[in-house]
Amino acid sequence: MAAKTLDLEGAKSAKIGVIEDADYGRQAVHDVVVAMRANRRSGSANTKTRGEVAATGKKPFRQKGTGRARQGGNASPIHRGGGVAFGPRPRDYSKKVTKATKRLAFSKALSSRIAEGDVLTVADFSIADGKTKSFAKEVGSLAPEAKRVLIVGNDFSNETFLAGRNVQSAQLISAHEVNTEQLLHYRKIIVVEGALETLAARTSN
Question: Max alpha carbon distance in the chain (Å)?
């Protein structure tokens, strides 16, 4: 199968919402990528307070008469094995962006990659024998100099997924699921012609 470069005119013919203004949508791309990366953070750092550590509730010594400062228990942060004062607690790093911002960022990222000549189209992409060697050979023939390749289609056969699952430099993904960060990450983007309609629907206002 042969691949051809998708230019801006071809994208318009496919009814993809192309953004030709160099500045319009750049902030949306930034906001969406930052939000996606922040949403992957677990925020699981945690320390126990004095109320959570396993310690006896018994007073270490009597209240009065010792000349020492009064102590109510051994869980205080000043004691070894006690709780931590002002330590990290589980937190939510997630950020929210509107649907309109996501759509604008996706359109801007796709438009930029098309304008740079990094988007290729093929009539079909399938590996009948399900072999990794065949998958790598096919991707190499379509994008010979690209170190990272994203292949976008509406649907792929089980054999094709099986062939590509161990190729770290390439990824198969549905046109319904591909996101802004992926469009920016890969050096070349191969789009199966049947998926152009889906991308057009995702970029239309």
Answer: 92
